[in-house]
Structures are given as C-alpha cells and as structure tokens.
Amino acid sequence: MRRHLLLGVVVAAAVFLLATAGGDLAGTDGQAVAEIEERSPTYDRWATPAWAPDPTGEALLFALQAGVGAVLLGQYLDRLRTSDGDAPDA
Amino acid sequence: MEGFLPPIWAVVWTVLALPFVAYGARRTLSAVRTDPRTKALVAVCAAFVFVLSALKLPSVAGSSSHPTGTGLMVVLFGPAVTAFVSVVVLLYQALLLAHGGVTTLGANVLSMGVVGPFVGWTAYRFVRPRLSLERSTFVAAAVTDWTTYLVTSLQLGLAFPAGADPGGVLASTLDFAAVFTVTQLPIGVLEGLLAAAMVGYLCRLDTLDGSRLGVVS
Questions:
Q1: Coil vs helix vs strand at B3
Q2: Looking at this predicted complex, what is its ipTM?
Q3: What CA–CA distance (Å, rounded) separates B66 from B52?
Q4: A66 and B54 in contact by Cβ < 8 A?
Q5: Exposed, middle or buried: residue B94 (CB in 10 Å: 0-12, 13-18, 19+)?
Q6: pTM above 0.90?
Q7: What single DSSP character describes residue B140?
Q8: Which residues of B, range 34-63, sit inside 8 Å of A by Cβ?
Q9: Sheet holding A26-27, edge to edge
Q10: Contact (Cβ atoms closer than 8 angstroms) between residue B98 and residue A53
C-alpha cells in the first residue's frame, strides 16, 4: 500500500510540473473558443462554470486526478499479479 | 467550453449520449460482478483513463492538449463500458476543473465515450487478424484519440457553420479540426504507444483470458 501511495505522489508531482511548465502553451480548448468568437462575435455564452480554479489550482487538481489514478492502477495491477485477483494481504 | 455549445445542441448531444451511457453502466456492473480478476482489470483500465486524461501535454505549434486514455479500455472491454467510465472522468473535470463543462458534457461523452471508442474498436477488429495484439492496440488507441477530436470538430462545425448549407458545416468542421489535429496527431501516437505497452504488460502477467475478453482469437 505504501508503495502505491509513493507511486501516486510521484505521478502527481510529475503531472503538476508538466501542467505548470506548459502553462503558457495555448490549450486547444482555448483555441477552439477563439475560433468560435471569431466566427460568431455576437454569440451569447449562456452558461459559465460555477467555480473555476486558478492555474495553480488547476494543475493541482489534474495532479490529484493522475495521482489517484496511479494509486488505483498500482493497487489493481498487484491484485492481478496474485492468482485470483482478490485483495492481497496489504 | 462551458456555455459555448448552443442550448439546442447541448440537449441533442445529451439525449444521444444517454442510452449509450445507461447501457454502458449495465455492462460495467456485470463486468465488475463477473469475477475478481475481471473487476481488477476494469479498475486498471479506468485508472489508466484517469491518469492519461489528466496529462496536459505540450505538443507541436506551441499548443497543449490531453490524451483520452480510453484505448486500453476499448480493446479490453469495448465501447459501452468506455462510455460509462468517460462520464466519470468528464464530470470530475467539468465540476472541479471547469474543464469541458456540464452543458457540453453530452457532446464530450458522445465524442470521447461513444463515437471515438466505437470507431477505435471497429479499427481494432479490422486490424487484429493481421497484426499482433500490441500493434492492434496501438491502432485502436490512436484511432480512438483522433476520432474523439474529429467528432468534437464536427460538433463545433454543426453549432457554428460557416454557411447555411452542408458545405458551410463541412468548412467550419475542417477549420475546427485544423485547430485540434495539429496538436492531437502526436498525442494520439503517444497514446497508442502507452496503451500498447500496457496491454503487452497485462499479457505477460497472464491476466488476459483472451476468449472471454475478445482479445485473443
């Protein structure tokens, strides 16, 4: 279990660094929005997110998502390595 | 993208996606209940989607985008289960990250969870008799990724056509596709490589009961 948590932390840190390092790169979502605004300048955006994190918070939440995924991945791969796939001793 | 899909299209894509998600939920539940190994395999595939779709990858032309991560699940469990899992990931990103969106959830589920995986799965079926498991998985994952973004382009093209005729939709779709494709082409290749490596690893673990999962003929 401790191994998997460590894996999760490492993956989360890597994803965080990747997301912050690529911060000034234009995301394709943003590029698509620019394309929409150029095409339909009068388009009335009828909904906005109730809550949006700042860039650092966004990177942290992506890191959390990847970290949780990595912990689960490690844990269930371990179960597959045991013969029947049931929870191992840990 | 929240609010950037006109309400009528938000409704259309949501209604179209719903039956696939409902069917996928049933298939996922029955897969999880089959036996512990299948359950663990579902979890591995879902976790793989979670990790990969969290990556914000720099790509060519100074832009960045996300892998879909769905290729592995498409190969091992088919498009229906993938539809259900993609809802979970897309909801997380819509609610917590303001990424994607609730009003665009139906459209995103249809592209990332339904059409992309279905086309990728069809490609897999087509190449599997000719190619090894790893290579077929590479094809499935890359095609799934690219198709996902092509469908997104078509959805945006339909909502914001360049003209009133079908030609206007096509022209607009190609414009949006140009935005995504440059970034997504290398990401699709990377995704293919990762999914192929993962499926190879699972094979070496001797976890894939081929006949049941339709992996090995």
A1: coil
A2: 0.90
A3: 8
A4: yes
A5: buried
A6: yes
A7: H
A8: 35-41, 43-44, 46-51, 53-58, 62-63
A9: A26-27, B63-65, B57-58
A10: yes
Question: How many angstroms separate the CA of residue A88 from the nearest CA in chain B?
Answer: 12
Q: Which two tokens stand for residue B214?
A: 């339709």
The tens-digit pLDDT sequence of chain B (217 residues) is 899 999 999 999 999 999 999 999 999 999 999 988 899 999 999 999 999 999 988 887 778 899 999 999 999 999 999 999 999 999 999 999 888 899 999 999 999 999 999 999 999 999 999 999 999 999 999 999 999 999 999 999 999 999 888 999 999 999 999 999 888 999 999 999 999 999 999 988 876 665 445 554 3
- Cβ separation of A31 and B156 shorter than 8 Å? no
Q: Report the C-alpha gap between B77 and B40 in whole angstroms.
A: 12
Q: Give the Å distances, CA to CA, from A19 to A28, A55, A59, B169.
A: 14, 9, 5, 34
3-class DSSP state of B100: coil
